[in-house]
Amino acid sequence: MSAEGASQLLHWFQQQHGVVDTTSMGIVDFPGHGRGAIALTDIPEDYTIFSLPRDLTLSTRTSTLPTLMGKAWKEHGLHEGWAGLILCMMWEESRGADSKWSGYLAALPNEFDTPMFWAEEDLKELQGTAVVDKIGRHEAERDYHEKVTPAVKSRPDLFPQEKLAQHLSLERYHLNGSRILSRSFHVEKWRGEHVEDADAGDDDEDNDEGEDSAMDIDPQPPVADKDDAPVLEDTANQPDEAGFEDDEDEDEEDREDPADVAMVPMADMLNARFESENAKLFYEERELKMVATKPIKAGEQIWNTYGDPPNSDLLRRYGHIDLVPLRPPLSGMGNPEDVVEVRADLVVAAVSKKVKYDMQERVDWWLEEADDDVFVLRTDCELPEELISLERLLLQSKEEWAKTAKKSKLPKPKVDVDVLSVAIDVLAARLKEYPTSIDEDEDLIKAGSMELLSLNKKHAVVVRLGEKRILQGTLKQLRAQVAASAGNGKKRVRDEERERKGKKAKK
Ligand SMILES: C[S@@+](CC[C@H](N)C(=O)[O-])C[C@H]1O[C@@H](n2cnc3c(N)ncnc32)[C@H](O)[C@@H]1O
């Protein structure tokens, strides 16, 4: 952002009753991070860097569009998912200077490095990773055609024909969806707050679509009692831009009320880096405050947190990745919060090579009882207990299986050589789902080569390599366990032999 752009945003913010200490904080460009906030003086812990009135946040609660549309808001399904907020943003932008948020919307990015906007050729580089199936382009487009387009057509007074191409196109819909995905906050109504218009999609019982905002917010300023301030939301598990089909299984009560998803001017200028947070947004009855959670030295970047997600989610939602030193058993640079997903069907396939009976009944029972069809491995390289339990279930003798089904209890996650051997086959099969090997990826990102890669390709290689290293690390541990138990087995045979010979000699 040019110095002029930053000063225009600050000017607009102050005009709208935002309060910012411009001697403490500036907005500058950080190479590779876009714009960000910088400390201009030493900032002490608990200092309020800026604050804004709640009505300066942009959401389906604060925009007047839902009220203007009345009953049609719900009739078009705009109270569910992000379609309503995206429409509010497109409508506010189409109003130009008449919109209260014109100065803010003008400062929002118009381009993203997220896979949602990648060419097919770059997307192929992500094959095998957790990103591909979660991009959500199809679901977003369905919402655009089924909810937004009919709503827009029904109100030419609000959406005049001459504004449609520039402000209400599918392209603008995706762009605003990505703005929400990478910049929104979870802002709940203050308890006792007046409900404006029950028909305008604001009532709480309609809380039935799963989507989360991009960043954390706390309900009290830390000054009062920092350690007890409850964090309202765990942002580690983030869903898609719109439609959110991948969250179908999420519990209803865990789902975020779409009206709580809010764009928060100025707060969304803060970047984030793994475990670097030094400021956080807190809310009070009438305002939101960005407060330093640590002392920040002059010249340092002011970092928020995006919940330290794995690189697959960072890339999908924000378009960047984190690279920091990994902890044992892994080494090198990566994201310590990385994960790799392993589908249960790989477990079924691996067991089916070792047994002769039909497993369908057990699989159906598992899906009913455990409801786990994807297992998540982390950088600690431990086998998930649920995966071990499924293996044990599938390996049980007919008699054991009959008992399990009768007791309705999942098998205990105990490993033995059979379980280890199946797990090795599962992870080896999972590694084959990536089109390249670990060595090939390491070659691509070694010093001297990485600089030759496009940004998208570099991001894709880091994401897939992060997942593969977890698989490789876990395989290493499993093979070591097999070797140890084989060693124990041989020792046991030797001991038994010695004992037998000893008994013979005595006779
Ligand atoms: C909430 S906005 C922060 C402000 C943003 N940099 C801007 O220029 O408007 C989130 C976006 O900032 C960028 N970003 C944040 N943290 C980053 C990091 N550690 N490395 C690279 N880019 C980062 C990503 O583009 C992300 O989508």
TrEMBL record:
It comes from Ganoderma sinense ZZ0214-1. It is an enzyme of class 2 (transferase). Residues 198-215, 242-258 have a biased composition (Acidic residues). It holds the Pfam family SET. This is Ribosomal lysine N-methyltransferase 4. Keywords: Methyltransferase, Nucleus, S-adenosyl-L-methionine, Transferase. One of its GO terms (biological process) is methylation. Its main location: nucleus. Residues 193-258, 482-507 are annotated as: Disordered. GO terms for cellular component: nucleus.
